[in-house]
Every structure is written in structure tokens, then in C-alpha cells.
Amino acid sequence: MKSICLYFQIHQPLRLRRYRFFDIGNDHYYYDDFTNESIMQKIVKECYLPANEILLNLIKANKKHFKVSFSITGVVLDQFEQYAPEVIESLKQLADTGCVEFMAETYSHSLAALKDNNEFNAQVKAHSQHIHELFGQKPKVFRNTELIYSDEIGKAVASMGYKGMLTEGAKHILGWKSPNYLYCNAINPKLKLLMRNYTLSDDIAFRFSEEGWNEWPLTTEKLVGWLEQMDEKEEVVNIFMDYETFGEHQKKESGIFDFLKSLPAAVLKNGHYEFITPSEAIKKYQPIAVAHVPNTISWADEERDLSAWLGNSLQDEAFTKLYELREDVSALNNERINKDWNYLQSSDHFYYMCTKFFSDGDVHSYFNPYNSPYDAFINYMNVLSDFKLRIKELMDAKQNDSTFDELQQKDKLIKQYKKEINKLKKQILQE
User: Fold this and answer.
1) The whole model's pTM is what?
2) CATH topology of domain 2-291
3) Is 223 exposed, middle or buried (0-12, 13-18, 19+ CB in 10 A)?
4) What residues are annotated to the active site?
């Protein structure tokens, strides 16, 4: 019996407002609240709530034989709590079924694993704690930002106690081997690897509504037919995609929700397949080989590398300047600084600076608030300049304990007032 491991990624960045040179040192608020809330409400309505409802009904209808897994960034969880708490509640309902696994990742959907191991560990720990607080699960399997992986990153993940990790079944890594088996880390073989079957995953995530695709329309019967054609020895088929596939990337009119509704019954019909979670997969199967990944891979673009985030001088400059501040941020341990530090690390900020406008151009334009990569770079560096000034001021103030305590008290008051304002806003909306 083959296993199907179905995994969804949920993430939305906090987009920065137009932050101009003259704002530096004068205005310390960086986020475009109107755009962030508008986009969130749109996706909640088109994707998150209807898809969650479908999954809940499918789990109940299939008597818990249908299972899925999620990786949800801390950044999007923060936005759910602020803009759409009903999504949190619907995810809790899914968690209560016992058929949904929540995985660990970086809190900020960051690239910290590429730069600073201490920051990487801190973010993963913070994210796991938040998942446990919300959904009552302690994550056992890790999913790095954009499925970014290398032998060294896998080693670091294993050292944090995770037994398994998700990554891309990149052709230049696997060669003739199939992604439909379990593999293990080259440095620490105790870390098991689930490799994404990118062909099947992208057939749903990217090609589903392409009428020019020679396999259009994709039906559940056709998908099961492809599964039947696989080598009978293959063990686990990993179908990983963005959750926004349902209703956002692929609109409701494309039939994507109908496809999701009919998927479990079609797969389970003949008894040849089962749905399992990543934790169940790494417990059930043994690795067939070591996956040697000396150079970092991801699930992005045709190259399956890091060029979407760190492929030009703009991205490299911004990335380097950001992490130069890590030591001071850690020393300050200021609540407002820490929050901005987290949000400024989101990989999306570097993604918007990407200059790849050829085969992957449409992908890079998704909800991009900038007219060009250069606008994205300038805006981000202006924000970073102000952030650096704030850190310097606080570091200087720390030399004077009384001044530092006063600033800390102001931060607490601002936080309290913000909570009261949000509470009043909700009361007004309910009226």
C-alpha cells in the first residue's frame, strides 16, 4: 500500500508601507496596515475559511482516513490573530480531529538558516512554542522556509531534536532516483527526509487551470491513474504546495475546490493508498539512501536554488546589512525592536528585489507591492536605516539605566494603548 503525504504551506508577509528617505529618524512604523488587512481578508474569504471547512468535512466523512499537514509561519499567525481570529478557530477545529499535523519552521519565514545558527534556533523554538500554545501540538517534523535545505542545514535541524524534515525532490539531487521514498541526511542519518514530488505537486498548484496544458483538465481520476502507473515498490508520494492554491492561485471557478472535495474518495477507493502525516511517514518507512546536498536547494523556480532571494547584488546587500544588526538586537532584547527584527527577516522582502523576469516572472509578481526590484530595495533599505538608528539610540540610552527604563515603560504603554484601540475597533465593528 502506497502512502500519500499531503502538506500545505500557509504564509503571508507583512508588507512594508512606502517608507521614504525623509521618514528615517522621524517615523518608526514600517507596515502598510491597510494593504495587509485587505489582502488577508481577501484570502481568508477566498481560500482559508472555505478550504478549512472542506478539509474538516472530508476528515469526518472519511472516518479519519484522510490526513493532511500544515506549516504555518509565525508572521501569518500574528496576522490571523489581529485580522482574522476565525481562521485560528477553524484551524483549532482541524487540530482537534487528530488527523492534522502542524510542523515547525522559522517564525519569520526567514533565511536565518543561511546566515546565523543562533538566530535560526531561536526562531524555530519561538515558532514551535506558538504552535503548541495555539494547537496543542509539539512539532516533530521541520519544514524550512521555501523548503530550503542542505546537508549542513539538515545537521542543524537534527541537533534541535527533529526526527524528520521536508525538502524538494530536486532532479539534480536525486538524479535517476525517485522522490517517492524516504531518504536521510548525509551528516546525521538519524534525520529522515521527505522529498517533494514536484511534478504531481505543481500539476495541482500551477497547472490546474492552464487550458493550454496537454493534461488539462486535471481530475482526481486522472491523478489516481498517474499514481497507478508508478513503480509498485515506491512507498510515499509527497504532494507539497501552498495552501493558497485553493481559491487564490487557482480560483474557485477553475473547479479546484471540487477537485479537493473528491480527492480522498478517489484515492481511497480501491484500497491501494492511504493518507499519512509526515510524522507517520518517518515512523513507518526506513530511508533507502543518503541524500547528498552539499549546495543549498529550495522549491523555487526552475533552478531549485536560492536565486529568487539571494541572486543579485541588491539582495545580497540588504541581506548582509540586516544580519549585521543581529548582535545588537539580541543584546537589547527590546520587545518592539524584536518584533520589527522578526518581520524584517521575512524572505519576501528579498523576493521582491528579484530581477528574474523571464520564465519565473509571473511567480515573482504575486502580491508584489513594488513597481520594480529597485523600488523594493530602496524602500527596504530606508526602513533598515531607521531601524539601525533606533537600535543605536537604545544602545546609547542603555548606558543610562534611568533613560533606558523610561523608554521601556513607554514601549509598554504603547503596547497597552494599541490593545485597547484594537478592542474598541472590534466593538465598533460588532455594533
Assistant:
1) 0.90
2) 7-stranded beta/alpha barrel (3.20.110)
3) buried
4) 146
**Type of residue numbered 11:** H
Q: Where in the chain is the domain with CATH 3.20.110.20?
A: 2-291
> For each of the chain's 431 residues, which pLDDT tens digit applies?
899 999 999 999 999 999 999 999 999 999 999 999 999 999 999 999 999 999 999 999 999 899 999 999 999 999 999 999 999 999 999 999 999 999 999 999 999 999 999 999 999 999 999 999 999 999 999 999 999 999 999 999 999 999 999 999 999 999 999 999 999 999 999 999 999 999 999 999 999 999 999 999 999 999 999 999 999 999 999 999 999 999 999 999 999 999 999 999 999 998 899 999 999 999 999 999 999 999 999 998 888 999 999 999 999 999 999 999 999 999 999 999 999 999 999 999 999 999 875 444 444 455 788 999 999 999 999 999 999 999 999 998 877 665 666 667 777 777 776 777 677 666 666 65
What Cα–Cα distance (Å) separates residue 427 from each residue in 354, 387, 430, 431?
Answer: 42, 33, 5, 6
